[in-house]
Design brief:
This protein has 51 residues and is of the alpha+beta class. It is built from three helices and two strands.
Length: 51
């Protein structure tokens, strides 16, 4: 993952709103706190689930 853009690894982050939340936390220095959600992404033949 080093040297790759987050959206190239997980394109769904851009449309889910998570990317904006990550950027806001990075820029503000405030911890990222959000209720537990399940994120399912299917890309080509791969699928990934995260919580």
């Amino acid at each position: 993952m080093i040297g790759k853009r987050l959206t190239s690894i997980s394109p769904g982050l851009g449309t889910s709103g998570l990317l904006e939340d990550y950027i806001r936390a990075y820029e503000s220095g405030e911890p990222y706190l959000r209720r537990a959600i399940e994120h399912l992404e299917i890309s080509g033949e791969r699928s990934g689930r995260s919580r």
